[in-house]
Specification:
Protein-Tyrosine Phosphatase, Chain A; disordered C terminus; 22% strand; UDP-N-acetylmuramoyl-L-alanine:D-glutamate ligase; 6-stranded mixed β-sheet
């Protein structure tokens, strides 16, 4: 829904659907995709709405990203025999009262980190907006909360007494709440991510997702906890997850030599974790290409620059500048980077991507962050066609070269 669109109450006809809301700074889309795969069947597909669009099972519906589009998706779900709908819910939508008008049967919290302070004014307001999803849960609803996150104890405190808390988290991270669903050390490769899960009854499940990275293990863990809370058997949920396709723009490897990854990471925490994953898979040099959106949270820009120092080469470029001066945005990012010798400042995103790939060798990894699945670049009030995935493939085809044996081979 748009920022200005009013939120009417939930219509009576939709009560035949079990509603799950997913919120958090990062991981909402991935968690929504995984959970919908676990809840749906061929005869009763799950409906879900994310930043990528509205879906029914694996089918993307040709619907607008609006309240009306969301309702049409829910009607399609009911018509096909579906009984579950998963909604990716932003903090701005929650701040406008969505949770009160649309109380969820299951609420899922992924994490909280620095982002969207342009819209909320303070971190406290940002968190309070997220917390509305859980404070407004009806009797018998489940709150699925990331027990590794620092704000988890506060979220647990705002739950209504009749709501049921389910905490999940990775054993390797600090636990702020006792964990009900525990994920063990994940194994990542260019084929995906796998890890074991211990559930409250002591049973162990193996989860495998095609998306690459520790953070996607956390998202899959959240989805499993929510699916079990919704009545799906753990082993069945795990089996359905195996068939879930990769998610566009989420650590998506679009070129194999050198490895080029496109990722939607556009907050400091998300960029850091994306680069940490890439580093694990990189046998050569790690390069990152990124910028920051104009007309949005300025305070995160130097923090993103600091996160980028995990890479060996940094290309700071233009994201969606909107009405801001791209040079000023880039300058604020560079202000956070101490290792200035790593920095290449190239405002033209096409040129930055081309240079980064041209400079890469076999065994290197190039991460293009910030826009992910997006197919346009917002400059002023105009959206110009632009796809990181297409740009990367075009550049790689123009810079094909023989293997340099001294650089090692790709993992």
């Amino acid at each position: 829904m748009s920022r200005s669109e009013p939120i009417p109450p939930r219509p009576a006809w939709s009560r035949g659907l079990r509603l799950c809301g997913v919120t958090g700074t990062n991981g909402k889309t991935s968690t929504t995709f995984y959970l919908s795969a676990m809840l749906g069947t061929p005869t009763a597909p799950c409906g879900y709405t994310t930043t990528l669009g509205t879906y029914l099972g694996a089918q993307r519906l040709d619907l607008p990203h609006s309240y009306g589009g969301m309702l049409d998706g829910m009607r399609a779900c009911l018509a096909r025999g579906g009984r579950h709908v998963v909604l990716e819910i932003t903090s701005e939508t929650l701040a406008r009262g969505f949770a009160q008008l649309w109380p969820c049967d299951v609420g899922v919290f992924t994490n909280l980190s620095h982002d969207h302070l342009d819209a909320h004014g303070s971190f406290e307001h940002y968190f309070a907006s997220k917390a509305q999803l859980f404070h407004m849960l009806p009797s018998g609803a489940h709150a699925v909360i990331n027990g590794n996150d620092e704000v988890a104890p506060v979220l647990a405190e705002v739950l209504p007494p009749e709501a049921k808390l389910v905490s999940y988290g990775m054993r390797s991270r600090v636990c702020e709440l006792p964990l009900d669903v525990v994920g063990h050390e994940p194994s990542i490769s260019w084929d995906g991510t796998s890890f074991d899960v211990t559930l409250p009854a002591g049973q162990v499940s193996r989860l495998t997702v095609p998306t690459i990275g520790d953070v996607f293990a956390e998202n899959a863990l959240a989805a499993l906890a929510a699916a079990v809370a919704s009545g799906v058997e753990p082993e069945l949920a795990a089996e359905r997850l195996k068939r879930c396709p990769g998610i566009p723009g989420r650590f998506e490897c679009v070129v194999e030599t050198p490895r080029v990854v496109v990722d939607y990471a556009h907050s400091p925490d998300a960029l850091q974790r994306t680069l940490q994953t890439a580093r694990k898979l990189c046998s050569g040099a790690l390069t990152v290409v990124f910028g920051a959106g104009g007309g949005r949270d300025r305070l995160k820009r130097p923090l993103m620059g600091r996160a980028a120092e995990l890479a060996d080469r940094i290309f700071v470029t233009t994201d969606n500048p909107r009405r801001e001066d791209p040079a000023r945005i880039a300058g604020e990012i560079v202000d956070g980077i101490e290792a200035r010798d790593k920095v290449n400042l190239i405002l033209d995103r096409h040129e930055a991507i081309d240079r980064a790939i041209a400079d890469a060798s076999e065994g290197d990894v190039v991460v293009i962050a910030g826009k992910g699945h997006e197919t346009g670049q917002i400059i002023g009030d105009t959206v110009t066609p632009f796809s990181d995935r297409d740009e990367a493939r075009r550049s790689a085809s123009n810079h094909t070269r023989p293997l340099d044996p001294s650089r090692g081979s790709a993992p």
